[in-house]
Each structure stands twice: as structure tokens, then as C-alpha cells.
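haha ok so turns out i had the wrong file open the whole time. this is the CORRECT one, sorry everyone. sequence first:
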Amino acid sequence: MILEMKVPSPGESITEVEIAAWLVEDGDYVEKDQAIAEVDSDKATLELPAEESGTITLKAEEGDAVDVGAVVCHIDTSATKPEGDTSTKEDKKEDTSKQESTPAPKASDTKTYATGTASPAAKKILSEKGMDASSIKGTGKDGRVTKEDAVQAVPSMGTPTGGARGTSRSKMSMLRRKVAERLVEVKNTTAMLTTFNEVDMSPIFELRKEYKETFKSKHGISLGFMSFFTLAVVKALKMYPAVNSMIDGKEMLSYDFCDISIAVSGPKGLMVPVIRNAENLSFRGVESEVKRLAIRAREGEITVDEMTGGTFTITNGGVFGSMLSTPIINPPQSAILGMHNIVERPVAIDGKVEIRPIMYVALSYDHRIIDGKESVGFLVAVKEALENPIELLMDNEIKKALEL
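then structure:
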């Protein structure tokens, strides 16, 4: 019996996927539920499992864009499992890479040397540049290296010098292409502005220094910066609901809940999983959810549902060393907060210069529905909550807030 395997729907509104990689080869025997391919949608990469055991016939190439519901392979379920070779495509690739190959000839084996001597003028030019006349092919009589030969051989600014100048071309994944389209769309369809501020991270540093070990031993997770920032954002969103809104046609859609998207670097690029109802979470709850989503994203297990429906985004370029940036809005949301690296800087405190750990923060927002007063007020509210977390985020009860 020939079974036609069709592309399942990865999620709502997704109509097309791309065959990112076949994990088996045409004619291989596959087991039921064995991963036979990786498919990219515009939101995530998913594995395609074999529906039955049998011999597989591929009907699409790697890189092909196929519609959801399209047939991508046949499985002959009447075939019996062959004895002996059970290696996968990856095993075969590894075996091939181990085979010996004939070494390419060295440049020195084919190099043409001058048959004559260098002229005095050529010698002077070459000696100034530390070059050997024997490495240059002369065009003068009996192979003599002329002044012109030396001038042409001496590398100059902007002139290729024989170093590597290769290029490579690879197809962008569907996920990367979709991200590119969305970024351009945001730039062209929103009135995006960015406002900046700085945060003195000393109070958070002191809290973490005193309680992070107890927190970790009690809950099994680290007390990081994301819980402080997420809860500060939730507090500010309640004060400025327009920032927790988005445009829907000719209407402004506002939310009474806070689904916070967090940008995470995954194997296929940037992933943005969502912390649902962050307004109901404690420090422990936020840290647990951040850890869970980050692990799933990095291991390629994140689902489409876990990356849709956010109302506001937090992105942390500081983990890569970024000092300052203008983050791009994650549509259809209307605002995004950018965190950056923490650097000790001199600041004025009560008329005196002190060294404090400072982070620059940035809020990009859609000026069509968020005014300057709201955007600046929102970012100031986030700053104040981060600089006074005991009072504004913990209600002056540290151990209760950290569930210690």
C-alpha cells in the first residue's frame, strides 16, 4: 500500500511551509514516527514524523515551498525492513566526510619564478616593501623584472593583494524571509519613534547579591534581571494602557491583561515566545516561565501557539554587549522595550560623583496611538520601578515577594 504523506498545518493562518531539510534519503526504509524532515513555517521550525513504516519516496526537494496539505512523500507500507544497513542520512554524510580525498596542489608547486634579474629601480621598490624579486614574473628581456613589474606587484590601498576574496550564496529560510518582510512592513506602516532613558541598577544588584543564593536553593531557578523588568513593565502598562494597545483597522484595541513577549535567540534565529498573564506572576513565576521558554526555543521545541498573541515585547541586546539600540516594534504590537548591557559609569548623586552600574533602556513605540507624553511617562515609570524595586515591585516585603 502506498501512503501519501501530506504537510500538516503547523498553526492557524499558516498556509505554506518550506522543506528545510530531509533527514532521510529517497528509497530509505523509515520507521513509524521517525523524524523524516524539518519544515520551516514563518513562525517556527517543526519536525515531520513518518506516519507509517516503509520505504520512502521523496516528492519535494530541500528548499521547496509547499502548501499545507500538499503531498511531500510516499511511503510504501508493504515494504519489509532490510537487514544490515540502517544508517540515516546524517550517518551517511558523516561517513562520506571521513573518506580520503586527493589533496589539492600547493601554490608553491605551480608558482612561476622570474628567469631574469630585477632592474635597479625594481630592486629599490621591492626592497622597500620587503618583497622578493624571485616571486614576480618579469616582462623584460630574458625575464628581467622591470620597474613597471615591481610597481604592479606592490600592493596598494584598495587593490586586491591575492588574499581570499571568495563569496558564498545560501537560501534564506522561510522564517528569516518572513522576519525580513515583517521588519520592512513595520518601518513602512508605523510611525515608529524611540525614546531613551538610563537606569541605576544598584538596588537590583544589592537585592540579587543578598537573596539570589537563597532564591535559587528554594526555587531551583536563578533570580535574574528579567523578572524585575517584566514586573516593572506590567506596572507601567497598567498606568499607561495605550502602550498595551494596538491598531485594528480604524479602532484601537486595548487589553486588560499583559502577555509579554520576550526575544530569545534560537538555532533558526530570533524567537519571541510569550509569557501569558504576566500581571498574575510573582518573581518566581516570571523566572520559571522565562527559563522554560528559553530552553524550548533553544532546543527547537517551541510551538507556534507559544509565540503568538503577545501585547508588549521586551528584548535584551545587552547579552550580546549592546550599549544602545532602537528596537523594532513586533507587529501588531505598538511598543517594545530594549534592555542593554550594564556598565559602571560616573553619575552625580547628591552633588557628588559616584560610580554606579548603569543600563540604557529604549522604548520604541507607534506614534499613531501612543503620544510622547505616554511613551516618556511609561519609560520613566519603568525606570522608577527598577530603581526602587523594594517599594514599587515588592510592597516593602522582600521575602514575601520572593516567596522565601
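The chain has two domains: 2-82, 192-401.
again sry for the mixup
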